[in-house]
Amino acid sequence: MIDLHLHSNASDGTDDPDDVVRLAVDAGVTTLALTDHDTTAGWAAAADAVATMPSGVRLVRGAEFSTASPDGRGGTVSAHLLGYLFDPAHPAILADQERLREERTRRMAVMTERLRADGYDVDPAAIAARTGAPVGRPHLGRALVEIGAVDSVGDAFDSFLAKGGRYYEPKADTPIADAIATIRKAGGVAVWAHPWARLRGDVIEPEVIADLAGRGLAGLEVDHRDHSPEDRARLRALTRDLDLLATGSSDYHGANKTIPIAAETTAPEVLDALVEQATGAEIVTSGQ
Ligand code: AMP
Ligand code: ZN
Ligand code: FE
Ligand code: FE
Predict the structure, then answer these.
(1) How far is the centre of ligand 3, averaged over its atoms, from the C-alpha of 193 (Å)?
(2) How confident is the model at residue 83 (pLDDT cuts 50, 70, 90)?
(3) What pLDDT is recorded for position 88?
(4) 113 three-state secondary structure
(5) 130 lies in which domain range?
(6) What CATH number is given to the structural domain containing 90?
(7) Residues 212 and 275 in one domain
């Protein structure tokens, strides 16, 4: 089984990167991708863990970039872009990830300030110190659970953290075409994560995907929990029309989300085609 989208506590998952590897192997996964938000900080620990696994386990090192896309109707929407097997030391990657992490810090300060003004005792320094990772809404959700403001991180997303809500602050994400160009420049492969996750807000028109397919986008994450069966069928048809790869993955976040590892998977031939396009980093294989 191949699962190409997992988060560790190097971003907003709850497991150490080495535990993500172990849990994936326990779940029957043979190839996993570690794709933390806006960082490659978990790569080394995950690679070390893979080295201790029985032979046949493969790690695709990646990241999920915070980007903004034209929606095809004159507006802009938030878009998550998976980059795989890029050179993590490429200056364009380092610059983009650093800018995004700073933007996350700024936004966390704004959201916590609004909450504190309403009497919710959430401290951005404590949240940042506890994770050591690029801070995101799931971290703030955890803090809200701890002070008893909500019962779960999911409930926090439905209330305090909801897009457009009283406490929500957007972040200045990287234009998606620029992020694709950066990932490609660094030898990586770019796949649009959950492009039609409608629960999270407005999504892009098919024309936008067609445009970006012409600018280096390599694939779409078709099989994702946030996609309906109808949307999966339409996205799959789009990948055929546009000659894009169609991946599937769990988007595992440990205890911060209810989805289990390998709930959605990618076909072996799709993984092969993806790896074939990459020149920035090697796959890490156990038993070697
Ligand atoms: P941020 O990047 O800080 O805006 O936070 C978005 C992150 O929160 C993404 O990684 C999502 O996977 C995660 N997320 C979105 N909705 C939920 C939810 N209902 N429960 C837990 N995590 C969520
Ligand atoms: Zn996340
Ligand atoms: Fe995402
Ligand atoms: Fe994700």
Answers:
(1) 6
(2) very high
(3) 97
(4) helix
(5) 106-159
(6) 3.20.20.140
(7) yes
Phi and psi dihedrals of 249, rounded to 5? -165, 165
For the residues 31-58, what does the mean pLDDT come to?
Answer: 96
Same domain? For 243 and 176 the reply is yes
User: For residue 130, is it within any domain?
Assistant: yes
Residue 103 has pLDDT above 90, yes or no: yes
Residue 164 lies in a domain: no
- The pLDDT score that the predictor gives to residue 256 is 85
97 near 38, Cβ under 8 Å?
Answer: yes
Pocket test for ligand 1, best of 157, 160, 249 (most atoms within 8 A of CB): 157
Residue-averaged pLDDT of the chain: 96
For ligand 3, a single-atom ion, which residues have Cβ within 5 Å?
A: 80, 193
pLDDT tens column, 203-214: 999 999 999 999
Clarify whether residues 144 and 12 are in a common domain.
no
Confidence category of residue 45, pLDDT binned at 50, 70, 90: very high
d(CA 10, CA 24): 16
What tokens appear for 75 in the block? 């507006």
Name which of 24, 68, 225 is nearest 34 in CA terms: 24
Going from the Cα of 148 to the center of ligand 3, the distance in angstroms, rounded, reads 26
C-alpha–C-alpha distance, residues 99 and 20, integer Å: 26
DSSP state of 72: S
| 131 band by pLDDT with thresholds 50, 70 and 90 | confident
Ligand 1: residue whose CA is nearest its atom 18 = 154
37 forms beta bridges with 64
List ligand 1's pocket residues with C-beta within 6 A.
12, 37, 136-138, 153-154, 157, 256-257
83 and 209, same domain (yes or no): yes
How far, in Å, is the centroid of ligand 3 from the Cα of 119? 30
Does 185 have pLDDT greater than 90? yes
Out of 257, 258, 259, 264, mutate this one to test ligand 1's pocket (max ligand atoms within 8 Å of CB): namely 257
Give per-residue pLDDT as tens, 133-144. Answer: 899 999 999 999
